[in-house]
Amino acid sequence: MIKVVDMGLEVPLPKVRVQVIWAHPRVDSLTAAVVSEVVEELVRAGTEVDQLDLYREGFDASLREADEPDWNNPDKPYSREVIFHANRTMAADIVFFVFPIWWFSLPAIMKGYIDRVWNHGLFYGGGRKANLEKIRWIGLAGESREFFARRDYDRMIRHHLNIGIAGFCGVNDSRAELLYNALGDGVEDAPSHYARFRNRAREIARSALN
Fold first, then answer.
1. How many angstroms separate the CA atoms of 109 and 96, rounded?
2. SS3 per residue for 125-166
3. In whole angstroms, what separates CA 76 from the centre of its chain?
4. CB 179, CB 158: distance < 8 Å
5. What are phi and psi for residue 58, nearest 5 degrees?
6. What is the pLDDT of residues 13-57, one digit of tens each?
7. pTM
8. Chain segment 94-139, per-residue pLDDT in tens
9. What distance in Å separates the CA atoms of residue 117 and residue 93, rounded to the nearest whole number?
């Protein structure tokens, strides 16, 4: 734990609070392995980690009338589930999103989480912003870096996540990291290939705490 000296006394600073939000239907997936590396690195650094596994927690991604934003009323009361999850995220200093890239975007369950929880009057609107220092997005891409760059998909995804979501909610320190060739096409040394995913996940976690 970091300490500061005050009048000759060492005073412990509050722990950094991090929420790790992730989405994959399988717990034995590469996405889950990357999440484990991120969480282990954060815990090793002494942070307080709240892990939100959208699939295992049974998050309902469907936005219904109760959680539809009222553009004229930022104080609209939302459902108990939305307020519960909004409070979890608002308690964090840093949020990590870890996910497979499907159709060059977020999985539906994660997009639904943002639609419902990062809602008008909570994370934006009415002069309100997300009270977060940083957001880190880690997307696992099935195709190669060259495939994404040739079609400008990498820039599109980063702009959408860093500007369209994080920036819109007032979080200026947002970075999207894409881990390419998650399917391992053409890879001869699979263990080394996937070890790089795990190592990079730990690097991203460490750098977010600096």
1. 16
2. CCCCCCCCCEEEEEEECCCCHHHHHHCCHHHHHHHHHHHHHH
3. 26
4. no
5. 70, 35
6. 678 999 999 999 999 999 999 999 999 999 999 999 999 999 999
7. 0.91
8. 999 999 999 999 999 999 999 999 999 999 999 999 999 999 999 9
9. 17
